[in-house]
Write a structure and sequence with these properties.
heterodimer; A: alpha/beta; Rossmann fold; six-stranded mixed β-sheet; three-stranded antiparallel β-sheet; 22% strand; B: MetI-like fold; 72% helix
Chain lengths: 240, 274
């Protein structure tokens, strides 16, 4: 691990479809401490989701160094991220089976605890993902991620497809879980207000590069880069 | 409304196929006569109380032979479809999920096999390895593999891009587990429909091969064999053709109705709450 961070990446380069194309990530460095919530913002196509996938190991960087301790990921589209042919119970058992937990009773006990933590009733274990609402599915995604006992939780726009009330519930749930479990969270979002509400630090990306990184108050009320200023203005945030 | 009709068709089809299966399996417990016993006195005897379906040109009881023949035709249809489905699914899953050079190489072979009609592929197999029930099953199974492989490949290519597959990879699921525990259940509705269509085709192909004399060999009965043997008596003893023909039509129609409009898929699809 690079110094005290639970997730670190140095000078990452990544290009889709061969090196002749324009890089999606260019010299990106990122560091997240235990218990910290880092917000990652930027317009569509800025490389946020690609960075998330490189950090989790789903994509391999062309160059650079990545060290993430037990990462887990919450995907944007919970409908696509939960296997539609399996019940919620099966999915939660599967996470533990893959962790090597063989005893069914131990798994069931853990599942009960985690369902409680994400504020879902055990009766949902019998349901299929398509029988749940968007917010409930996102809670299941969080439960699955937590069952993997991660040190870093990467949430790729987990609330963008939800209505405002449910968004607030999920955001406060993530905040509680992060504090309670000392969990590092990389929260990717378009919604600058939600990012401010949840995160300790914020990183801004544009065209595959990190343009600014600071504590949330510094970044929101004293932005240095024109792009950050434009981003805040477009979200109706008065930074001046 | 459309879904209700599809489910209705599926149930009607299932009833038809079940009736044929019960009829064929009943022959294991009881047949009015030995299906292979010849009685020259009853040669081409018309249907009567003694011989409900009549007798063929060797004086064999047609009802008993239709029962035996249906079992044989179903055995060939099911076994060849099982061979084709298993090999085709494994090949298609590997090709669709991994892609790359292996996929390119196998796809070219499948394209070549696709260019040859299935029945011709089966004929080539029979001419190389000889006739007999076992070889007919292998020949038809081999001929079915390309269609299964191609269909399953397309489905796996679609599924591998889904986030749930990436989530499984992230959780540490191995490749075989992702292929057959995570993705395969999502391909099942399409696969089951393909199996039903293949069953239909295999039954028809068996009938065709037996009709040509390269399928089931006498004295064994199969529906195709019986139709082949009866062709000379279409005008003088039409019942020799009618009864095996009716059973075959019920079976094929049943499979057709079951597969129509993805009827099997409905059992696996659920409504979204959103």
């Amino acid at each position: 691990m690079i110094n005290e961070y639970v997730c670190s990446a140095e000078k990452l380069f990544f290009t889709y479809g061969g090196k002749k194309n324009k890089p999606t990530l260019e010299e990106v460095s990122i560091h997240i401490k235990s218990g910290e919530i880092l917000g990652l913002v930027g317009e569509s196509g800025s490389g946020k989701s690609t960075l998330a996938k490189v950090l989790t190991g789903l994509l391999k960087a062309d160059s650079g160094k990545v060290e993430c301790n037990k990462p887990a990921m919450i995907f944007q589209d919970s409908y696509s991220a939960l296997n539609p042919a399996k019940t919620i119970g099966w999915l939660l058992h599967e996470v533990q089976r893959l962790q090597g937990v063989k005893d069914k009773e131990v798994r069931e006990e853990e599942i009960h605890k985690i369902m409680d933590a994400v504020e879902l009733d055990d009766t949902y274990l019998m349901h299929y993902p398509s029988e749940l609402s968007g917010g409930q599915r996102q809670r299941v995604m969080i439960a699955m991620a937590l069952l993997a006992k991660p040190e870093v939780l990467i949430a790729d726009e987990p609330v963008s497809a939800l209505d405002v009330t449910v968004q607030k519930q999920i955001v406060s749930l993530l905040k509680r879980l992060s504090h309670k479990r000392n969990l590092a969270v990389l929260f990717i979002s378009h919604d600058l207000r939600t990012v401010y509400e949840l995160c300790d630090r914020v990183m801004v990306m544009k065209n595959g590069k990190v343009v600014e990184e600071n504590t949330k108050d510094e970044l929101y009320f004293n932005p240095k880069q024109d792009y950050t200023k434009a981003l805040l203005s477009s979200a109706g945030i008065d930074w001046e | 409304m459309k879904k209700t009709n599809t489910n209705k068709n599926f149930i009607i089809g299932l009833c038809m196929v079940s009736a044929v299966i019960v009829f064929a399996l009943a022959g294991l417990v009881f047949t009015p006569f030995d299906p292979e016993e010849m009685d020259t006195a009853s040669k081409l005897a018309a249907p009567s109380l003694k011989h409900l379906f009549g007798c063929d040109n060797f004086g064999r009881d047609i009802l008993s032979r239709v029962q035996q023949g249906t079992r044989m035709t179903m055995l060939i249809g099911l076994s060849s479809t099982a061979i084709g489905a298993v090999i085709g699914t494994v090949l298609g899953a590997v090709m669709g999920y991994f892609g790359g050079l292996l996929d390119e190489f196998l796809m070219r072979i499948i394209d070549v096999l696709f260019a040859i009609p299935s029945i011709l592929l089966a004929l080539i197999f029979i001419s190389l390895f000889g006739t007999g029930t076992f070889n007919v099953i292998l020949a038809l199974g081999f001929a079915i593999v390309p269609s299964f492989a191609k269909m399953v490949r397309t489905e796996f290519m679609k599924q591998r891009e889904m986030d749930y597959v990436q989530a499984a990879r992230l959780m540490g699921a191995g490749k075989a587990r992702i292929l057959f525990v995570h993705i395969l259940p999502n391909v099942l509705p399409t696969l089951l429909n393909c199996i039903l269509i293949s069953l239909n085709n295999a039954v028809l192909a068996e009938a065709g091969m037996s009709f040509l004399g390269i399928g089931v060999q006498p004295p064994q009965a199969s529906l195709g064999r019986m139709l082949s043997e009866a062709q000379g008596y279409l005008q003088t003893a039409p019942f020799c053709t009618i009864f095996p023909g009716i059973v075959m039509i019920i079976m094929l129609l049943g499979f057709g109705l079951m597969s129509e409009g993805g009827g099997m898929g409905h059992a696996f699809r659920r409504k979204s709450k959103d």
